[in-house]
Design a protein that fits this description.
By secondary structure, the protein is an alpha+beta fold. It has helices spanning 2-6, 42-52, 73-78, 80-100, 155-175, 191-203, 220-228, 260-268, 293-300, 317-325, 348-355, and strands at 14-19, 25-29, 61-67, 107-108, 110-118, 124-133, 135-138, 144-146, 208-211, 238-242, 245-249, 255-258, 279-283, 339-343.
Length: 366
């Protein structure tokens, strides 16, 4: 929370961008670079998309979402890393197993999976978004097998297999003593109570759904980029902050207002464990297969290899921001002149005048 509170403020230091043509000044404070900060992911996201585009195959892709039932909410909140790892494993293995089934496709798929933990009103709702290749490298490795363009696998088959794999992983974690069963989960320390929960989950239909296929491969990771580096809420969804609390947009142009304490509580529900990897790759896109199976798939698809080219000159961070995110910090917004950077302590006049031009975090609710 402190990282987000002091992000782009004088606390972290910074500099002043000054236009030498018209004397316009703008303070530029340093970013916290915390991955949960709504303001610090644009450049990281753009660079990630650029890198992942190297692995896109000239085929169609599918978007499949795996969701945990609400009955697992309290257990997942208390055991985030363990439960999230099981979700990733179960989702990835489900798709790979169905893909290699000769009655389905008989091929190795490529999968990129991203964890999300929120609903539009910031409630806890763990689910995994998977971008899946529309086909795969045959298990024999000698040809590419394409799936139908509008259909991958039966959702019911994916749902039941995902349920079985997740609950198998959960039972294993329970028996190895890897779960924290204190607090609100204390009743589950009793094995009969845990078995009752497991039986309830086995009888329940788990939600797995496939979204509309992508129109073309160029859309895949640009679309996925909307998911990879997103946090629970972005600044543009904040409407107002007043005596009633924090008002923000949810879905279908609706709004919700909660107290400031409740807003912060909901936001912090989605802070991931330290070092937790929320983007993972499976099958053809796994790190061990990128130079082998993925390369062979690309050759079989007769994709054109990129011509070797000299390394371009190293760009500054401002040049990268302009190239990848379209944000130009080098040009004066008033006259179009060139902006230069000066240390804050060398230009107190411009800091004071430019700070007065900054917009508040929330618009005036009146």
């Amino acid at each position: 929370m402190r990282a987000i509170e002091v992000c782009r403020t004088q606390v972290l230091g910074g500099h002043v961008d000054v236009c030498e043509a018209c004397d316009f000044a703008r303070p530029a404070y340093n970013s916290c670079r915390n991955r949960h900060c709504p303001k610090c992911q644009a450049l990281t996201q753009a660079a990630w998309i650029e890198k992942r585009m190297e692995h896109v195959l000239p085929i169609h892709y599918f978007h499949v979402v795996f969701t945990l039932p609400h009955e697992l909410g309290r257990l997942a909140l208390r055991n985030r890393k363990v439960i999230f790892d099981i979700v990733f494993s179960a989702a990835g293995r489900t798709l790979l197993e169905v893909g290699t089934d000769r009655e389905r496709l008989g091929a190795h798929l490529g999968i990129t999976a991203v964890l999300h933990t929120w609903t539009r009103d910031l409630r806890f709702h763990p689910h995994v978004h998977c971008i899946v290749t529309g086909g795969g490298l045959a298990t024999t490795g000698n040809r590419w097998i394409s799936s139908r363009r509008k259909y991958l696998f039966p959702v019911r088959v994916l749902s039941r297999l995902f349920r079985g794999k997740f609950l198998d992983g959960l039972v294993r974690a329970y028996e190895r003593g890897e779960l924290d069963l204190s607090g609100v989960c204390a009743s589950l320390a009793d094995r009969p109570e845990f078995d009752r929960l497991k039986d309830t989950l086995y009888r329940k239909d788990w939600v797995v759904y496939a979204k509309r296929p992508f129109a073309g491969p160029e859309q895949v990771f640009r679309y996925l980029g909307q998911y990879t580096h997103r946090v629970g809420i972005s600044n543009h969804r904040l409407v107002s902050f007043d005596e009633r609390g924090v008002c923000f947009r949810t879905k279908d142009r609706k709004h919700v207002t909660v107290s400031s304490e409740e807003f912060i509580r909901r936001f912090l529900l989605h802070v991931l464990p330290d070092g937790f990897v929320k983007i993972r790759h499976y099958g053809l896109l796994a790190s061990g297969n990128v130079r082998t199976k993925l390369a062979e798939a690309r050759r079989l698809l007769e994709a054109e290899e990129k011509s070797a080219s000299a390394q371009p000159p190293e760009q500054t961070w401002k040049e990268r921001l302009l190239a990848l995110a379209g944000v130009d910090l080098t040009t004066c917004p008033r006259c179009g002149g060139e902006m230069i950077s000066r240390p804050l302590d060398e230009d107190p006049f411009h800091v004071a005048s430019a700070t007065a031009l900054l917009s508040p975090t929330f618009p005036d609710s009146s």
